[in-house]
Amino acid sequence: MSSLSILHLLLLLLALHAPQAKGLPVTTSRSRYSVLMKEIMNDLEKITTTPTDSLSSDEKNFLTKESLLQKNLKVFMTFATDTFGNDSKIMKNLKEFQPVLPTATSTENPIFIEKNKLGDFRMKLEEYLAIIRNYLKSKKLWFP
């Protein structure tokens, strides 16, 4: 047998023993942000009712400003810590966004969340997470 036919035979045998893809998506560090957001939303749905109010244009403006993304995150983290504890999944997941958000450059005040109002927290956090998702997409840090 020629060495070429032996090589073909070896390649065929290797292909038969190679692990087969299971059709599962490859998890990258970039896709973890979508998982974190989904976990936050699932937890919010378990502990609060769907908000019936909507955000004012001023509130949306505060959440949308790129210069306030980090400050707003701190407001949400403070509320989560005060309400659910420092070890809550919501708090831990929110903390994961700190390194990818821009440093606060604005002297403006961040968003205000009414104390002990889970509905207000959820409504604003849902909007904020959508804004972060768009920010991460614009920075090529997001894979759905």
From TrEMBL:
Principal location: secreted
Record's keyword terms, sorted: Cytokine, Growth factor, Secreted, Signal
Compartment annotation: Secreted
InterPro entries: 4_helix_cytokine-like_core (IPR009079), IL-3 (IPR002183)
GO CC entries: extracellular space
Entries under SUPFAM superfamilies matching the protein: 4-helical cytokines
GO annotation (BP), single: immune response
Pfam families listed in its UniProt record: IL3
GO MF annotations in UniProt: cytokine activity; growth factor activity; interleukin-3 receptor binding
Superkingdom, natural source: Eukaryota
Cleaved signal peptide residues: 1-23
Protein family per UniProt: Belongs to the IL-3 family.
Assembly mode: Monomer.
Function, as annotated: This CSF induces granulocytes, macrophages, mast cells, stem cells, erythroid cells, eosinophils and megakaryocytes. Granulocyte/macrophage colony-stimulating factors are cytokines that act in hematopoiesis by controlling the production, differentiation, and function of 2 related white cell populations of the blood, the granulocytes and the monocytes-macrophages.
Protein's recorded name: Interleukin-3
Lineage: Eukaryota, Metazoa, Chordata, Craniata, Vertebrata
